[in-house]
Amino acid sequence: MRGMTELNDGKTRKIKNAMRYSFSIEEDTANYAVYERGGIVTQVKEPKVLNFAPLQRHLGTLLIFS
C-alpha cells in the first residue's frame, strides 16, 4: 500500500462499512500519513470462546412432548 504506512505493522484491525471495493477501519487515522493507492487486505478470523451451562443442570428441566 502506498501511504498510511502505520497500517503495515501486522496488527489486526476491525473493519466497518465494508463494501465491494472499499471499507473503513475502526481506528483514528487522523495522524497517519495520507493514503495514496493500493494495498491488500487479508481476512483473519479470530477464535471466539463459547461457554455453555453443564448438560446435567438442564436434564432435570427437560420437557418431553408426545
What can you tell me about this protein's structure?
This protein is largely without helices or strands and 66 residues long. The chain is built from one helix and two strands. The chain starts with 14 loop residues before the first strand and ends in a 7-residue tail after the last helix.
- Give the % helix: under 10%
Q: What ranges have pLDDT less than 50 throughout 5 or more consecutive residues?
A: none
Strand order of the largest sheet: 1-2
Distance between the termini: 63 Å
The rough form would be described as elongated
Q: Which strand-content bin applies to the residues?
A: 5-15%
What structural class is derived from the secondary structure elements?
A: little secondary structure
List SSEs in N-to-C order. Answer: EEH
Q: Average pLDDT across residues? A: 86
Per DSSP, the total helix count is 1
Q: How large is the radius of gyration?
A: 22 Å
How many runs of DSSP E, i.e. beta strands? 2
Biggest sheet character: 2 strands, antiparallel
Structure keywords:
66 residues, little secondary structure, two-stranded antiparallel sheet, 1 helix, 2 strands, 8% helix, 6% strand, elongated
Q: Short summary of the structure?
A:
The chain has 66 residues and is mostly loops.
Architecture blueprint of SSEs:
Elements: E1 15-16, E2 24-25, H1 55-59
Antiparallel strand pairs: 1-2
